[in-house]
Specification:
Elements lengths: L9 H71 L11 E6 L2 E6 L19 H80 L1
Antiparallel strand pairs: 1-2
Helix pairs in contact: 1-2
Length: 205
């Protein structure tokens, strides 16, 4: 980055010092935001790990129930069975954390499954498989909301990291160089002024 043309004056030094103080304050705020975002992401990662564990357990249960239903009825019989009605759509709300909108699925009370006319060859395996997959699907919205929140927090963390890095590695070093340059110029002016004063005294003597 090309250096600025700076006049070695007290006003320029004061302005640069104020600019450096503002940059340091901005960096401190961004660094604090970065830490808060990381803390929030770690908390959500723990919740995500628990949700993944529940999802995998529900998936294993559903797969086992489906295999049992296949063994009992076969594919053709299961395809002829009436489908259950879809439950209500999940209610999603957003909360803002450090300017980031994080989706969250609101918990809703469990509803009793709709009664379906059983076929002639009914068995516990078929409704058991349906119930297992219903339970599996009920865990999906919360898991998806957690993953979406994590992606949004990660994006905001990367943006904050870039801004903090620009201040730390570009702006602040440039300001330090400018301040040092102005201070060196002022020191040279002071030395010249002191020499003129000494010469004037010697001349007067």
């Amino acid at each position: 980055m090309p250096s600025r043309e700076l006049a070695p004056t007290r006003i320029a030094l004061l302005e640069l010092s104020e600019e450096r103080a503002t940059a340091r304050e901005g960096y401190a705020l961004l660094d604090e935001k970065r830490m808060l975002l990381a803390t929030r992401m770690l908390a959500l990662l723990a919740r995500h790990a628990e949700a993944c564990t529940r999802w995998k357990a529900a998936l294993a249960t559903a797969e086992a129930a489906l295999a049992a239903a296949f063994d009992r009825h076969g594919v053709h019989d299961l395809e002829l069975r009436p489908r259950g009605e879809a439950g209500p759509a999940p209610r999603v709300r957003e909360t803002r954390v450090l300017g980031v909108a994080l989706p969250e699925v609101e918990a809703r009370p469990a509803e009793a499954p709709h009664a379906v006319q059983p076929p002639l060859d009914d068995s516990p395996e078929a409704p058991g498989a349906a119930a297992a997959f219903r339970a599996l699907l009920e865990t999906a919205p919360a898991l998806a909301a957690l993953e979406c929140a994590l992606w949004r927090l990660a994006d905001e963390y990367r943006r904050t990291e870039r801004r903090a890095g620009a201040i730390e590695h570009l702006l602040l070093p440039e300001l330090e160089r400018d301040i040092a340059e102005v201070e060196a110029g002022l020191e040279a002016i002071d030395q010249e002024e002191a020499q003129r004063v000494r010469r004037a005294r010697h001349g007067a003597g």
